[in-house]
Fold this protein.
Amino acid sequence: MTVPHDATATDGQTIRITATYTFEAAHFLPKVHDGHKCRRLHGHNYRVDVSVAGGLDERGFVLDYAELDGIVQPVIDELDHRCLNDIPGLENPTSEILALWLRSRIAAKAGTKPMIRVWETPRYLVEVS
């Protein structure tokens, strides 16, 4: 699914849509020092914002939210209620690495590179664009 980039209907402006997804998962960070609290197994209620930008298609969408959900939700389901360290590519699942992993997986299906925001807590987030 490729996001159209015909911005003629928007006077050359780029429009960005965003959908938010959530999942719960455990992880530990094997590359931090022994005394670091994140070296121990713990969990988070993650929030992921996925943004796609472009022009409008003939329907007036950058991308239909239902189409975006069809791309993103299966990727989120791979993470939900799992130990992230057990997932290939997430052996050292920092939020930065998780955001890059998500972007790569979603981009492969969407045909465009989305902006990804991973909220590990309500206070801390990582953005990849």
